[in-house]
Structures are given as structure tokens and as C-alpha cells.
Amino acid sequence: MDAIAKIHEFEKFGSILGLERMTSLMHELGDPQDDLKCIHVAGTNGKGSVCKYVYEILEAQGYRTGLYTSPFLEVFNERIELDHKFISDEDLQTYTDRVLEKVKVLTDRGEDSPTEFEVITAVAFLYFKEKKADYVVLEVGLGGIGDSTNLIKEPLVSVITSISFDHTDRLGNTLSEIAGNKAGIIKPGCPVVTSAKADEALEVIREKAEECGSELYETRDIKAEIVNESLSGTSFDVTLGAKYIGLVISMNGEHQIENAVCALKAIEVLQDEREIGIGIDAIYDGLKKAKQIGRFEVMSNDPLVIIDGAHNPDGARTLREGYEKLLQGKKLLMLTGMLRDKDTEHIIGEFRKIADDFIATEPDNPRKLSAEELKELLEKQGGRAEAYADNKDALERAYELADGYDGIICAGSLYLIGNLRTFIRKRNNTL
């Protein structure tokens, strides 16, 4: 059985927050996480992009940098990256086998089995330690306080991005509760950067930072001046500790400027408080190189095809705002698929501001909403829709209809977007 199949065997244990199992497993492995220098990033939306910006800047400076993210879009190996290379199949097998040896030790003595995410996180910690990563950019999986990445005792900086409603069954029903969970990554004496906007969330983060004696840097009120904005990227000026003129990012949307500003503040903290050498050229180069696949990503221009993992109301709103800035007035066809446990009514409400015509399909996940059910929901909100359960059939239908539109937007569950991205790349001969 290969490494990925072995890891997926742990799906049956579900997703259980708490650090007891992880603590025990990492102790058996020699606690490699204690030797890593980490930038720890939590949040509802934006954390993946902030991770990418910080990672690319450190890489541009020449540091051997690790990146741990979730979920993946196309291949499992995306989750563990070092020096711009995904973990190899061989290394994934080797480190998975070593972790699973210790899992057996735990279960043989009657301890609870770790979850799938805990096993993957353990593999990443061990891999980054033994590959001698200078720094690791570590994305929280779910929440913060009970997430398996939260074994990191002294992050170089903790970053908390936007706070909104998601996973309310696990993290709480109010912004205060959700923020409290995510603020669990704040550690005594370790600096914190946050781009959270809501007063309700910020109050909780401020209280936690003060309780921990941690310096807090807020970026909510830092305003960037946009110089130019197009589908190929955005240039802007902004003043933080330093003044930056003509910064360029390749990720689209005003929210990506906010994410870049948050990442810039984290970089300044690394420079000033951790005395890490990061030059201005690395900052400019790293920001421009950073790309978050599956986030308002232009896959082709003829026809125009954009993919976006807008899988919750906040993500859908962000996609709609991007449309209004860059594609207003364009007649678009939208291909979408969603999970049943998401707030589909609000997501569809945002999508309807982008398109009248839809192709409904299904994510590759047991929690999927069927194509026919989604078609009915789209029509209920005034859209016209066709349903194709098979993702490839749905995409081919979109291409068949493309001549009647200015472009195609594929949006929804990440479990859908990953599949579509692979099909589109094969179609474009870029795979």
C-alpha cells in the first residue's frame, strides 16, 4: 500500500481537535517540531495566500524554506513543499512509514490513534527537520487552539488573517468564539500580526495577545494605494514600517492586497524583532512570484477561463467583488459544485450577481450536493442551469457553450476546483 493510501486509512478516525494524540506521537518521533523556526498562520480566509507571500519572500532571499498547507487541489504532495518542490513520492513513503511505526507503538499500548491530519502534520514536521529547512511557513488546518500544528511552542511570528463564519459546528457560533479558537496559536512573548477586521474578533485577539505578553500588530487600517489593476495582477503603494512604492502582486482581487500587506507586516516583524536578514529586492520579487492556485486563477484567455475555490459565503463575496472590479458587464457562464454542509443559499446569492447561466456539477466528496439538487437551488434564485454529475462532462459542456459568453468562471468546492484544474491543464497541454 502506498503512502497516500496508508494516510487515508486514518480518515475513519474523523477530524478531532485536541493536542493529546499529537503530543504523544511527536514525542515518540523525538519532537522534531521543537527544532523548527516557524511562521504560524491561522484565519478563516486569506491564510493560504499570506503563507504563499511569506514563503516566496523567504525563498527569494535564499533561505531554505518549507511550506505546509491544506487541502491540496490536484496532488497530495502539494501539502508539503520545500524550496519550490513538492515532497517526492519516495520521501513521502519514507517519512510516512516512519511516522506509522510510531503510531503502532502508541496504539499497541492502548492510546488513541491519531487522525489523518495529525499523521500528515507529523510527516511534515519530521521531513522539514531532517531536510534542514531554515524556516517553515505553517498553515493551520482547522481553528487554532486544538489544531495539530499548534504544537509549535515559540513561533517566530503568529499571523491571524480574516475572521468570518465557517466550521461553526467546531469553532463556535459567534465571531468572538471563532476568534478565540484561532487566537489559540498566540504564544507567550511571541509577536502577532492580524488582518482581522471585525471589532468583535479583534477584541478577542487583543485580549489574548495582552494575556500572553505578545506584541500585536494590526493591519486593518493600513491603506494601500492601487496604481494599476488587471487580470494579470495589481500594483500598489503602501506604507508600513517602511514605504513601498510600486509593489506588484500576481494574485487578483482587493483582498489579495490586504493579504499582501498582512504578509509584509509579518516580514517586517521577522526583520525587526527576529533580526532575520530580508532585503527589499526579495520582498518585491517574492510578492510578485507568489501565486495561490485556484484563487481567481486565469487558466486561459481564449476562451477566458477563471477558477476560484469560493466555497463559503466570504469566498463567494470576494469572488463577486473581483468580478465587479475586473469583469463588470461581461456575460459569463458559471460552472459550480458545492458541499451539502455549506451555506449554499448565500453562496448562490453571490454567484447570481456574477452570472445568469450555470452548469451544476458535483465535488468529489461524500458530502457533495448532487448536481440536480444544485440546479434546483440555482433556478430557485432565478438562474438558468444545466446539471452534469460528472466534472469532465460539465467542463466539456461549458466549452461547447463558450462562444456565447465573454468567459467561463469555475467556482465552488475545492474538491471540485482541483479536478477541473487538472482537466483544464490537460486541455491546454500544460500538465
Fold topology:
Elements (H helix, E strand, L loop, with lengths): L2 H6 L11 H9 L9 E5 L4 H14 L4 E4 L11 E3 L2 E2 L2 H20 L7 H15 L4 E5 L17 E4 L7 H4 L3 H8 L9 E3 L4 H13 L4 E3 L6 E6 L2 E7 L3 E7 L4 H19 L7 H10 L7 E5 L2 E5 L4 H14 L5 E6 L6 H8 L5 E4 L10 H10 L3 E4 L3 H11 L5 E6 L1 H14 L4
Parallel strand pairs: 1-5, 1-6, 2-5, 6-7, 7-8, 13-17, 14-15, 14-17, 15-16
Antiparallel strand pairs: 2-3, 3-4, 9-10, 10-11, 12-13
Q: In words, what does this structure look like?
A:
The protein has 431 residues and is of the alpha/beta class. 41% of the residues lie in helices and 18% in strands. The protein has 15 helices and 17 strands. The protein has helices spanning 3-8, 20-28, 47-60, 89-108, 116-130, 168-171, 175-182, 199-211, 254-272, 280-289, 313-326, 344-351, 371-380, 391-401, 414-427, and strands at residues 38-42, 65-68, 80-82, 85-86, 135-139, 157-160, 192-194, 216-218, 225-230, 233-239, 243-249, 297-301, 304-308, 332-337, 357-360, 384-387, 407-412. A hairpin with a 2-residue loop joins strand 3 (80-82) and strand 4. Helix 3 (47-60) packs across helix 9. The longest helix is centred in the first third of the chain and has 20 residues, at 89-108. The protein starts with a helix and ends with a helix.
